[in-house]
């Protein structure tokens, strides 16, 4: 029934092929299937969660049922396609391609960088706002650079490494399940007052499901840049008691870019105090450009590692 178990050795090759295809052929957002699920999740929340002042237990139950209503029918409709398909790996590749929408965010990061470098902060804020939960209208150029750097790398970890990780673990269905979980968490984020309890089931599951991706991203990035400096920042982050998946990535970034990351952030007019991480120097446009370049190098580095794995796997099969 699960054909991917028989073709497990082909999955790294399928993944590498989709990485290359996705980097060259970007599906417009209007035609991205995930756009439909974003609209559906938003409308579903409006129907089943009309009153954020209800009892917290009722909101937790509603949030759990809403999450199941988004994920289970979708997976239930996709699963029979594997039984009917003569090319299950092709189906897996298509599902992975639709789930890997990360390139769009990197392109938007380039546009934000260009706007900030031309001192068009208003345009940069408008470009950044749909990509993040925090409020952007009060951000300075430094704040825009910091927020864009954090957004880019957290998206890299969760939407690129995370989707790829679960694809290798469970094929296209696992990648779709994980991506829908991320989408629901983004739409019903529990940092927003009206989703504080309703969005908590999705938030908790996302935290656990994305932890392996955050850990892999942080370790690979540390190996690519400065492992010793990353460990120093991780020790500092431990003392500051930052969110574990977040400090793993921001710690190594602060070391690699030699800038200050994290710090206070505003969600829905409410300021959240986050401890600062890294040296005192604040990010500039040059650091944002360096972050984008490092992001590209990181992806090439990951592709190289996967290629080496495929090569070694092929040699073992031959001999």
Q: Let me know the average pLDDT.
A: 85
Spans with pLDDT under 50 lasting ≥5 residues?
1-8
Rg on CA atoms, Å: 20 Å
Going across the major beta sheet, what is the strand order? Answer: 1-4
Element-level helix/strand string: HHHHHHHHHHEEEEH
Q: Count of DSSP helices?
A: 11
Shape verdict: globular
| Strand fraction | under 5%
Q: Tell me the major beta sheet.
A: 2 strands, antiparallel
How many DSSP-defined strands?
4
Instruction: Tell me the span between the first and last alpha carbons.
Output: 30 Å
What proportion of the residues is helical, as a percent range?
A: over 70%
What report would you give on this structure?
This protein is mainly α and 319 residues long. The protein has one domain (3-318). Helix content is 72%, strand content 3%. It has 11 helices and 4 strands, in the order ααααααααααββββα. Strands 1-4 form a two-stranded antiparallel ribbon. It has a two-stranded antiparallel ribbon with strand order 2-3. β2 and β3 (270-272) form a beta hairpin. α5 (102-117) packs antiparallel against α6 and α9 (227-240) crosses α10. The longest helix is centred in the middle third of the chain and has 47 residues, at 141-187. It starts with 10 loop residues before the first helix and ends with a helix.
């Amino acid at each position: 029934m699960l054909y991917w178990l028989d073709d497990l050795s082909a999955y790294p090759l399928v993944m590498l092929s989709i990485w290359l295809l996705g980097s060259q052929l970007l599906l417009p957002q209007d035609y991205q299937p995930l756009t439909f699920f974003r609209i559906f999740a938003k409308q579903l929340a409006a129907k089943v969660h009309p009153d954020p002042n209800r009892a917290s237990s009722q909101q937790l139950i509603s949030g759990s049922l809403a999450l199941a209503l988004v994920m289970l029918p979708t997976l239930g409709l996709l699963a029979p396609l594997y039984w009917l398909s003569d090319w299950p790996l092709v189906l897996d590749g298509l599902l992975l391609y639709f789930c890997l929408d990360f390139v769009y965010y990197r392109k938007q990061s380039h546009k934000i960088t260009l706007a900030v470098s031309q001192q068009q902060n208003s345009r940069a804020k408008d470009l950044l706002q749909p990509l993040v939960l925090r409020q952007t209208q009060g951000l300075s150029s430094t704040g825009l650079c910091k927020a864009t750097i954090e957004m880019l790398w957290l998206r890299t970890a969760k939407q690129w490494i995370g989707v790829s990780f679960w694809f290798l673990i469970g094929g296209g269905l696992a990648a779709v399940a994980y991506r829908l979980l991320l989408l629901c968490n983004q739409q019903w984020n529990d940092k927003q007052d009206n989703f504080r309890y309703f969005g908590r089931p999705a938030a908790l599951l996302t935290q656990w499901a994305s932890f392996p991706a955050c850990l892999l991203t942080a370790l690979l990035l540390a190996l690519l840049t400065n492992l010793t400096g990353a460990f120093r920042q991780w020790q500092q982050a431990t003392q500051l008691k930052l969110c574990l998946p977040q400090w793993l990535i921001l710690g190594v970034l602060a070391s690699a870019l030699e800038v200050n990351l994290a710090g206070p952030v505003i969600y829905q007019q409410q300021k959240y105090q986050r401890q600062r991480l890294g040296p005192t120097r604040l990010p500039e446009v040059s650091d944002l450009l360096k972050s984008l370049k490092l992001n590209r190098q990181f992806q090439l580095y990951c592709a190289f590692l996967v290629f080496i794995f495929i090569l070694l796997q092929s040699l073992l099969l031959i001999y």
